[in-house]
Amino acid sequence: xxxxxxxxxxxxxxxxxxxxxxxxxxxxxxxxxxxxxxxxxxxxxxxxxxxxxxxxxxxxxxxxxxxxxxxxxxxxxxxxxxxxxxxxxxxxxxxxxxxxxxxxxxxxxxxxxxxxxxxxxxxxxxxxxxxxxxxxxxxxxxxxxxxxxxxxxxxxxxxxxxxxxxxxxxxxxxxxxxxxxxxxxxxxxxxxxxxxxxxxxxxxxxxxxxxxxxxxxxxxxxxxxxxxxxxxxxxxxxxxxxxxxxxxxxxxxxxxxxxxxxxxxxxxxxxxxxxxxxxxxxxxxxxxxxxxxxxxxxxxxxxxxxxxxxxxxxxxxxxxxxxxxxxxxxxxxxxxxxxxxxxxxxxxxxxxxxxxxxxxxxxxxxxxxxxxxxxxxxxxxxxxxxxx
Length: 388
What we know:
Blueprint: H1 3-11, E1 13-14, E2 19-21, E3 27-29, E4 42-43, H2 59-73, H3 79-84, H4 106-119, E5 124-126, E6 137-140, E7 145-153, E8 157-167, E9 171-180, E10 188-196, E11 200-208, H5 222-230, E12 255-259, H6 263-285, H7 294-311, H8 314-322, H9 324-335, E13 344-348, E14 379-384
Antiparallel strand pairs: 1-4, 2-3, 5-7, 6-7, 7-8, 8-9, 9-10, 10-11, 11-12, 13-14
Helix pairs in contact: 5-6, 8-9
């Protein structure tokens, strides 16, 4: 058992298990933090199963433990309060040279926030921390780049994370991932929108399947997305196979676009994005939760996080702007918090681009690289575990 696990086992106790066993032996969901049905104190070791080879906490134990820690240590805050803490929604860029329409994807952030407030049950803000770092905000004033992050949970979704990265005209990013409560065996909703130099744009919106066979989900979903995708020819692109394998954790109805006409953002991308978000929640509400599915769903969500953490091309950007140590923690402890973290964290090189220029605003492609190329799967920068 690792030192950090021994520390948790020695210092933390929880009041109730999220999923209790009845007389029939079937596991029953209590929707963590909303319907606590047991008052018996359960120590952390009873929620943990260590894998003898990988020394990793069992996904169900990890989920229960993280939920308890969050609920016991974090006072309730509204989304408005969490936004206001760092001035969101921002009205102007960190780069004062930018004057017109400088925050390209802020409309997406604002729409999603309002949609969450209007439609989700028991919505609450979750901490953006791993215990030693607060990921809610970071800034590189010299290079004119900043990042803000927000994490929330609801009865429907055990984690919704949102990120906005502003580096003026050089780079604008909106990213969000919605993880359904694990009693719902449904795909993850993934959103990734990027703009480079206000000339090249990349967009991905997808119901990211946890299983290779769609029928292994509780409810088939691609037929719900196809009519939406058919309306937007600009969003029917295909992903490069040099970095991500589109047969893993991507659906056939993924919205994917590379484009140079910024008009696509408002004309096609925004309405398609909002319809995919609405459809995902409707899918969840039409699906019956099954408590027996929880262990398998959490294991697949963990596999999704691990796969994504190993391949996320934005890692190099974060390392260049905020440091390799911060990037390592950010990727594994916030973006993909249930991922299995390797002893040595590797940062893939950005495709065909040297490090950004001093004051380059965080655009890793400022010196001629192609943001649409695939990222090599071999690591180019390594951060030893001892440096974390």
